[in-house]
Amino acid sequence: MTRLAASLLCTALLLAGCGGRDSDSGWNPLRWVSGSAPADTLLPEGGYASTQDQRPGIPQILSARFERLGEGQLLVVTGFAPTKGYHDAELITARPQPAGRISPDADGVLRLRFVATAPNPETETARIPANPQTDTITTALALSFVQLAGVVAVEISGASNTITLRR
After folding, report:
1. Average pLDDT for residues 141-159, to the nearest whole number?
2. How far apart are CA 83 and CA 151, in angstroms?
3. Are residues 88 and 15 in the same domain?
4. Is residue 87 part of a domain?
5. Looking at residues 45-61, what average pLDDT do you find?
6. Which domain of life is it from (predicted)?
7. Can you give the residue range of the structural domain that contains 9?
8. More confident residue, 146 or 28
9. Count of the separate structural domains present in the chain
10. Of the candidates 17, 15, 158, which has an alpha carbon nearest to the alpha carbon of residue 92?
11. In a 10 Å sphere around its CB, with 0-12 CB exposed, 13-18 middle and 19+ buried, how is residue 38 labelled?
12. Residue 47 falls inside a structural domain
């Protein structure tokens, strides 16, 4: 008998906590069905801003190759700029992706851009022509076996040319 009384008392207290018809309580069973409450979301009004990297592509890509790593492969790309002073070179995905994630497009091609920050045109280094033998720009991107699982080819684009590596 005490178990029945205890369970009835708990049920009565629970229903009393639900409040009336206009209660904002999440325990109100009338709100579970009506769906009148707006959905809570972390999405900002207007959505997230899509920020595309504004650095220009390397003027000329000279070579691209894969080097073996213990947990994947290292994509090494070398390019050439017409003047000295290019810096902050990087391989980035052609379409925006979450930080730390790299995945190929639906056709299995991983499309990358080889970008670098050009020197300020007013500086002296921007006026010095680069030497093709000594002033190459090299960057690398480590790709794990998981990231390479669905990749059929890697396409690297610069400002004037594109290199494709088949796997």
Report:
1. 93
2. 34
3. no
4. yes
5. 76
6. Bacteria
7. 2-19+26-33
8. 146
9. 2
10. 158
11. exposed
12. no
Tokens of 73: 């492969």
Nearest partner of 66 among 123, 121, 140, 156, judged by Cα: 140
pLDDT value of residue 157: 95
Helix spans in the chain (H):
2-17, 29-34, 145-148
- Band (164; pLDDT cuts 50, 70, 90): very high
Residue 142 domain-assigned? Answer: yes
Are 11 and 64 members of one domain? no
pLDDT, tens digit, 9 for 90 and up, residues 56-67: 899 999 999 999
Q: Angle at the Cα of 81 (from 79 to 83), degrees rounded to 5?
A: 155
| Within a domain: 71 | yes
* Tokens 């690398």, residue located: 140
Residue labelled with tokens 């069973």: 29
Domain check: are 75 and 145 in the same one?
yes
Q: How far is CA 33 from CA 23, 26, 27, 30, in A?
A: 14, 12, 12, 6
14 with 70, same domain? Answer: no
Per-residue pLDDT, 49: 60
Note whether 83 and 117 are within 8 A (CB): no
pLDDT above 80 for 135: yes
Residue type, 130: A
